[in-house]
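Summary of Year 1 activities. Much of the first year was spent building the evaluation harness for sequence design. The harness presents a backbone, in tokenized form, and records the residue chosen at every position. We chose the following record to illustrate the format because it has been used consistently in internal testing since the harness was completed.
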């Protein structure tokens, strides 16, 4: 697949995934693995993630195994946590060991623990697809990063961590323009309330209702593992859905 036809095929596949990720996952999952890889490999990571999240675990694992190692690791680290954990478990032992060298140690630990978390826990519902920056990061660099993202992928907030990955606060994306671009993330961040992965997801919903746009999920040491937003919390009532405009 080279030349103009590749671009056209990639565009059609991307539009299909954007419009109907569930249907795209089913259709691509029905193809031979090498055919699905040819269609997905040229796409941006967010398109692959949208398609692989609802795909049959075994098929998604087969596709990720056929991708270049670094690309596969990047996509795996951004999937919904439970799907990522199931895919990781479906890998052969050599494949898991190879992935471990490309993924952060705390993320690998989370993958290995997450399948034991209850379905309604924060850990089972969290997403690892988030943006975080160190306290000393310049706002100019954060703004530039956001400018290069598709509009629908812009996060409600970016998290601020220390050098060890511990959550120190968050910055609302919409407020970045009000600060001096030379300021550091640590100087303008707001304090963040977090939850443990074993906590009920409902606890994060209460924090969101108090005005925090996203809730970080951290380990007992405060290291950022994932995030929860209103759209992924399925235990809320219809009245809450309407109130927050999540669906």
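For this record, the design step produced the sequence shown next.
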């Amino acid at each position: 697949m080279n030349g103009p036809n590749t671009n056209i095929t990639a565009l059609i596949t991307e539009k299909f995934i954007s419009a109907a990720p569930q249907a795209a996952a089913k259709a691509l999952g029905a193809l031979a693995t090498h055919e699905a890889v040819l269609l997905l490999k040229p796409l941006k990571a967010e398109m692959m993630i949208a398609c692989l999240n609802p795909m049959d675990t075994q098929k998604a694992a087969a596709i990720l195994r056929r991708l270049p190692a670094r690309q596969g690791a990047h996509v795996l680290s951004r999937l919904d946590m439970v799907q990522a954990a199931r895919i990781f478990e479906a890998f052969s032992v050599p494949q898991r060991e190879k992935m471990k060298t490309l993924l952060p140690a705390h993320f690998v630990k989370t993958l290995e623990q997450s399948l034991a978390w209850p379905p309604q826990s924060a850990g089972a519902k969290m997403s690892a697809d988030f943006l975080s920056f160190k306290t000393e990061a310049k706002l100019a660099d954060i703004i530039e990063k956001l400018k290069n993202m598709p509009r629908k992928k812009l996060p409600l907030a970016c998290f601020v961590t220390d050098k060890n990955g511990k959550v120190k606060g968050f910055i609302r994306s919409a407020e970045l323009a009000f600060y001096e671009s030379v300021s550091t993330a640590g100087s303008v961040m707001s304090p963040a309330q977090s939850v443990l992965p074993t906590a009920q997801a409902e606890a994060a919903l209460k924090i969101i209702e108090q005005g925090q746009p996203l809730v970080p999920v951290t380990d007992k040491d405060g290291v950022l593992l994932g995030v929860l937003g209103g759209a992924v919390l399925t235990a809320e009532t219809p009245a809450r859905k309407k109130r927050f405009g999540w669906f």
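The first helix runs from residue 4 to 19. Quantitative recovery figures across the full test set are reported in Table 2.
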